Amino acid sequence: VPEPYEPVALEARTAEDENWLNAGLMDLMVEVSNKWGQPCANADCSDIASNLIDMQEPPMNLVGPRCTEIGMNCLGDSQETTYQLSSNLPLDSGEVYSVIGTLGTTTENATYVGLSINYTLMKKGVENISSDQLKDSALEYAQSVNNVDKLYVYYLTRDCSGLEVLTGGYCLSIPETIIPPCSPEAIEPCGYAKLVQREYIRPGTQRGPNSKLVIPPRVLKLQRPL
Q: For a 10 Å CB count at each end of the chain, is N or C smaller?
């Protein structure tokens, strides 16, 4: 007679609470916007910034075992990582996006961090920025921002050329061959860029970090200088 396996107790997700880095993250957003000559109107930059959302906590629950319990279209178990998702990011009106976040490999919450660019129309990843590329990207702001060794700032736009002074070289070009142009007048369905941050395996565990304790990255929407 077949006998079921005993229930397996999954290791609980844990994390170093990153909330103490919030002040430095806010300061970094302000400094970046000032450097670009496009200062935030609000103290928290909410007028030009948006947060990535946690895909593993209500109301989303698109990833992980709790997703199946509520009948959603799930991406798999994915207990080894966190998933955080941006809104759609248009690329064809001179937009430059500054992605600002905590770096899990330096906050002891991840052994690897991936910042992937996804094409919404195809529902697939087209580019990836690794934690090695994100490391030290905020160091130029060390005189005005605390704990920059635990933060990152990286840029996404159609063409990074000519922006080296403003980006410090931490910039990813997204050419039209990867994500085709999309305009308000387009007749065919349009696709946009969408950003996903993944943080894999908290050191000393077999699980990704507890996403409730991880600060979601912010995306500043800037404009390419004329």
A: N
Residues 116/174, Cβ–Cβ less than 8 Å: no
Torsion of CA 36, 41, 43, 44, to 10 degrees: -70
List CB contacts of 201: < 8 A, sequence separation 6 or more: 80, 81, 110, 111, 112, 207, 208
Helices (H), 86-192: 131-134, 164-167
Residue 84: which H helix or E strand, with range? strand 81-85
* Residue 24 in tokens: 């430095």
* pLDDT averaged per 10 residues, the chain (length 226): 78 94 97 98 95 81 61 66 93 96 98 95 89 98 98 98 97 94 69 93 94 96 95
> For residue 27, what is the enclosing H or E element?
helix 22-35
